[in-house]
Amino acid sequence: MSDRPADPCTIVILGGAGDLAKRKLVPALYEVARGGLLSPSTAIVGLARSAGTDGSWRDAVRASVMEFAPAGTFDEAAWGAFAGRLFFHQGDFLSPETYAALQSRLWAIEAERGLPGNRLYYLAIPPSGIAGAVRNLGGGGLVRRGEERPWTRLVVEKPFGHDLASARALNDEIAGTFDERQVFRIDHYLGKETTQNILVFRLGNGLFEPLWNRRYVDHVQITVAESIGVEGRGRFFEEAGILRDIIQNHAMQLLCLVAMEPPVAFEPNAVRDEKVKVLRSIRPQTPEEILRDTVRGQYGPGALEGQPVAGYRQEPNVAADSGRETYAAWKLQVENWRWAGVPFYLRAGKRMPKRVTEIAIAFKTPPIAFFRRMGVTHQDQNVLILRIQPDEGIALRFGAKRPGAEMRIEPVKMDFHYSEFFGSKSADAYERLLVDAIHGDSTLFGRRDEVEAAWEQVTAILDTWGDVPPFDLPNYAAGTWGPEAAVALMARDARAWRRP
Ligand code: BG6
């Protein structure tokens, strides 16, 4: 995080009483304030439809900070200082009248605290409300378009649209009110330390960058596995599915960071230019290829850690005959000079045996099976594993001679764990991203063309899937690594998914 002093500003959370605000935003803001990364006068204003006062909102925020801030970080002195920054304003974010009153309230707060009028609007609201809220912010005169100072910025949460057309429409709507450089599209995976470390690992070490290409890499596997199910978000998931919820954003962002060319500078547009190139290099697939190279799965009843768990169709607000996918796998090709011929396999799933996000780079085996005359007929590939979470770290698997008279090669592992080396738990992704937005640094946020390029790829899959409804769902039991078809997808290429 930047150690420049942060601009004093007013952070307005639309959806201030919602789940995201409660679980993620206010605990992150508390931590950021506790760490001295907010200007002393910065105010945080929650806008919500439900009745409330500054006092009742402070009580609610206190409860969420106690519940969701990292263990052991709550202290009364820090809380007292933080509580003084919190203000509540009641209003419906979809109603234009709300915004005139909100503007007067913000002016009053800014006058009282000597704030210069920098505004960060955080849309922690359902996707269907984003366009309306943006229009109302503009219509109500709450946006200083393009101005350097005092600045206005907009932070938008995912899901950003539900296909290419809706993402474009939303981007058009936002562009009617904000300049692109004022818009910060959040993908919280980019705020994770281990995600940021991908580029550091690649570009800060002489050992690996020379190997990072089709000459040495056999294939890449990107896994985003979660043991949780849909956690009361049945209604949302019925509309979204895992392709939209995880692959289109988190998994494709990881893909970009692994596959991109070194940017000309570590600066927002240079980094994002290279990411967009990766997305545009993904080879378009025909519907037949999509059906061959993707897998849809849905969990049925099963067990996790010995406890029975319900199937997706038994979750609240899920149709009894739902065709929605809770697992997706996708084999794609990044068709550029660096990666031609190297398949990338992406998979994401709910109710997997464990929570793990990792990127595995499998290297080609040596050109000669040198030890074959000594009985070594098979040699494992060397694999580099970037563990994004939860056991953050990097591991390198290679072969070593098993001690003894016989020639036997066994896979062994060099393993780096963040927790062992750096000790303290790293900042939550939201803390990092909030600080960056306040500083106006959009390196870790999605640019318009980037989000649309990802949707373009994913929309092709959604269209094909829409035309050919799945017939075999549910096709994996909760607590297993996904459907047989996903195993077969790899087996066809004489490969296998890792069992992290
Ligand atoms: C969110 C998805 O974006 O990411 C959720 O909507 C998912 O479905 C979550 O559970 C995973 O985030 P993390 O940081 O726990 O890996």
What is the tally of beta strands? 18
Q: How large is the radius of gyration?
A: 24 Å
Oligomer: single chain
State the domain count. 2
CATH superfamily of the largest domain: Dihydrodipicolinate Reductase, domain 2
Q: What is the CA-CA span between the terminal residues?
A: 31 Å
Beta-strand fraction estimate: 15-25%
Kindly state the mean pLDDT as a whole number? 95
Shape: globular
**Structural category:** alpha/beta
CATH architecture type of the largest domain: 2-Layer Sandwich
Sheet having the most strands: 8 strands, mixed
Descriptive overview:
The chain has 500 residues and is α/β, with parallel strands linked by helices. The chain folds into two domains: 10-157, NAD(P)-binding Rossmann-like Domain (Rossmann fold, 3-Layer(aba) Sandwich), CATH 3.40.50.720; 192-427 and 474-491, Dihydrodipicolinate Reductase, domain 2 (2-Layer Sandwich), CATH 3.30.360.10. The protein has helices at residues 19-34, 54-68, 76-83, 96-113, 130-139, 164-175, 193-203, 234-240, 242-259, 268-281, 287-293, 418-422, 429-439, 448-467, 484-491, and strands at 10-14, 43-48, 86-90, 119-123, 152-156, 183-185, 217-225, 294-297, 299-300, 302-304, 307-309, 327-333, 343-349, 356-363, 383-389, 393-401, 409-417, 476-477. The strands form four sheets. Strands 8-12-13-7-14-15-16-17 form an eight-stranded mixed β-sheet, with helices on both faces. Strands 3-2-1-4-5-6 form a six-stranded parallel β-sheet. It has a two-stranded parallel sheet with strand order 9-18. The protein is globular and about 85 Å long. Bound molecules: 6-O-phosphono-beta-D-glucopyranose (BG6). The site of 6-O-phosphono-beta-D-glucopyranose has 3 residues, from loops. Residues 188, 226, 245 line the site of 6-O-phosphono-beta-D-glucopyranose.
